From TrEMBL:
Segments forming a coiled coil: none
Protein name, entry field: RING-type E3 ubiquitin transferase
InterPro entries linked: Bbox_C, P-loop_NTPase, Small_GTP-bd, Small_GTPase_ARF, Small_GTPase_ARF/SAR, Znf_B-box, Znf_C2H2_type, Znf_RING
Molecular functions (GO terms): GTP binding; GTPase activity; ubiquitin protein ligase activity; zinc ion binding
Single GO biological process annotation from the record: establishment of localization in cell
Record-annotated B box-type domain positions: 120-166
Length: 569
């Protein structure tokens, strides 16, 4: 460092230039501004070894997190704080500081050597009035010419006094406005004196500031300087942090605009979307796959129907052909028999065996093609179609489902079962155990389990849950006193793990009775919306005597089981 400093000094003297001006040799080679100890022109080091001021670095173009050196185009990788993360060139900063000290000492030297170097109004030497003062002793507080300075400060102690050019002499203290013979030395710290806090020692000890808190002007000024410096540094910190936030916002904004790399996502996979464009692409890809999948499913469904139709037509044509052959055979036999009617007795007697054979053939055909057999040969022209939940088509064979009917005792479960099975309102007795019936529709076959609802039987309900696709919960709409009890049972059912994929149909039964609670009242009393949040559920008003509501209830159930209304059509 000393060597570098010496080189700079030598360069200055060789080139006959002053140090103060030649600070510019320590300037940023991009903007030609002198480097500074702090602020915009603080020197920062690039990884290639070049030094550029902070301000210029901020203006340089960046590629992602790298910055190119303006001199050799080499890359420097930036940290998370961008340009702020680059190290300051401390060697250069130290050199700058030393140069400032050297310059200051040189100024004193020059002032000491030359009376005329101080361009301001001349100040008389305190030792010899006819001399012009060129330096100010900061310890003796005297203005001195060079000669008197040397003369008065020639002892070992006095030589150490710091003497500065008179131009840099500290300002003289003002005189006290109440005691004109004395300088102000103190600052009064009382709040009431904030408007005129300066005072001399007389004001402080005997005058208007007597008894007040006070401090030395230098001490108080130093405290103020420190708090100002601290506020400045805090301000800079805040500024730096805000700058960092701005940079991050810019990064996020550029990512939104589509700078980030994008790889097409897989259907159903959750991807982290990096930019607005990536999000759009992700959505388009998702729906493209969905459309493709639906097209494939539609084609597969059509193929299934086409092959079903082909098989059916083949069957019909075969039957048609077989029956036509039989019809022509019968017609031939009939023609032969009609001829025998024209014959005389002798001929008839001779042909009796052939006639018996023909009659037997007709009898055979008659018994072979009974009404029932002919019905079987006439296929139903309808094509019963159902769709599974994954959009596969199902023709013919019925969708089978296991359903359990639960609810408090007396709610009407058994009555409903009998109504669905036999279309009758039968008298019932309380169920001990269970009843089970199979109920068939064109495309649906329900196995309906009706389990007794007495309090002692309810713990047994759970044994019926396995493989159950739907639960029918029957509520006696008249029995408001037991709504709370019914809600408690429904809550247990709703929380059953084994039933979490089952559809839940609530039948508000006995709507034929005048005091029956409406569906809305029951929904509210049972808090169904919150209780069954996230489940497949439906509430249907119904009554057994007329059967009103039961077919709608089953239609909803069927939709849940086969996802199509065709099942019941
Ligand atoms: N008015 C009217 N009465 C009904 C209706 N449904 C059922 N009932 C009557 O309510 C009573 C109880 O019916 P059940 O079908 O035995 O009740 P349950 O739910 O099977 O009762 P448990 O087997 O004890 O669990 C019987 O007297 C039925 O006639 C309805 O819709 N309207
Ligand atoms: Mg019953």
């Amino acid at each position: 460092m000393q060597k570098a400093l010496k080189n700079v000094q030598q360069w200055c003297s060789k080139n006959n230039r002053t140090l103060s001006r030649e600070k510019t040799i320590l300037e940023c080679k991009v903007c030609d501004e002198a480097f500074a100890q702090q602020g915009e022109h603080v020197p920062r080091l690039l990884q290639c070894g070049h030094t550029v001021c902070h301000s210029c670095l901020m203006k340089l173009p960046t590629q992602d997190v790298t910055l190119l050196c303006p001199f050799d185009r080499q890359e420097t990788i930036l940290g998370p704080s961008a340009v702020w993360s680059l190290k300051k060139n401390f060697a250069l900063l130290e050199l700058l500081e030393k140069l400032q000290i050297v310059e200051r000492e040189r100024n004193v030297q020059e002032a000491t050597n030359s009376h005329s170097s101080y361009p301001g109004p001349s100040i008389a030497c305190d030792e010899e009035e006819t001399h012009v003062a060129s330096v100010f002793c900061t310890v003796c507080l005297t203005n001195l010419c060079a000669e008197c300075s040397d003369m008065t400060h020639n002892t070992r102690t006095l030589m150490k006094h710091l003497r500065i050019p008179v131009s840099e002499r500290p300002r003289q203290r003002p005189k006290c406005q109440y005691h004109s013979l004395h300088f102000v030395e103190f600052v009064c710290l009382e709040k009431s004196c904030v408007d005129s806090p300066l005072c001399c020692f007389i004001c402080k000890d005997y005058g208007r500031h007597k008894g007040h808190m006070h401090g030395l002007i230098e001490t108080e000024a130093e405290k103020l300087r420190l708090s100002v410096a601290s506020a400045i540094s805090t301000g800079k910190d805040v500024g730096d942090r805000l700058q960092e936030s701005i940079r991050k916002l810019e990064t996020v904004a550029s990512q939104f605009e589509g700078s980030s790399a994008y790889s097409p996502p897989v259907l159903t996979e959750t991807v982290t979307i990096g930019s607005a464009e990536a999000a759009r692409l992700h959505i388009q890809a998702y729906f493209r796959e969905l459309h493709d999948m639906l097209n494939m499913q539609e084609n597969a469904a059509l193929l299934t129907v086409d092959s079903y139709i082909r098989e059916k037509l083949c069957f019909i044509r075969q039957n048609h052909e077989d029956l036509s052959v039989v019809v022509s055979q019968i017609s031939e036999i009939c023609q032969e028999l009609e001829k025998t009617l024209q014959a005389d007795e002798i001929q008839l007697a001779v042909s009796s065996s052939a006639i018996a054979t023909a009659i037997a053939a007709i009898d055979d055909r008659q018994s072979e093609f009974s009404e029932r057999r002919l019905e079987q040969l006439q296929p139903d022209a309808s094509i019963p179609i159902t769709f599974t939940k994954n959009n596969r088509v199902q023709i013919g064979p019925k969708v089978e489902a296991r359903v359990i009917t639960l609810g408090l005792d007396g709610a009407g479960k058994t009555s409903i079962l009998f109504k669905l099975k036999q279309d009758e309102f039968l008298s019932t007795i309380p169920t001990i155990g269970f009843n089970v019936e199979t109920i068939e529709y064109p495309s649906l076959k329900l196995t309906l389990w009706d389990v007794g609802g007495g309090a002692k039987l309810r713990p047994l309900w759970k044994h019926y849950y396995l493989h159950t696709q739907a639960v029918i919960f029957v509520v006696d709409s008249v029995d408001r006193d037991r709504f709370a009890e019914a809600t408690a049972e429904l809550t247990k059912i709703a929380n059953e793990k084994e039933l979490r994929n089952s559809a839940l149909l609530i039948l508000a039964n006995k709507q034929d009775l005048p005091s029956a609670a409406s569906v809305e009242e029951i929904t509210q009393a049972f808090s169904l919306s919150s209780l069954l949040c996230g489940q497949f559920w439906h509430i249907q008003p119904c009554n057994v005597p007329s059967g009103t509501g039961l077919s709608e209830a089953l239609q909803w159930l069927t939709r849940q089981l086969v996802t199509t209304e065709l099942a019941l059509s």
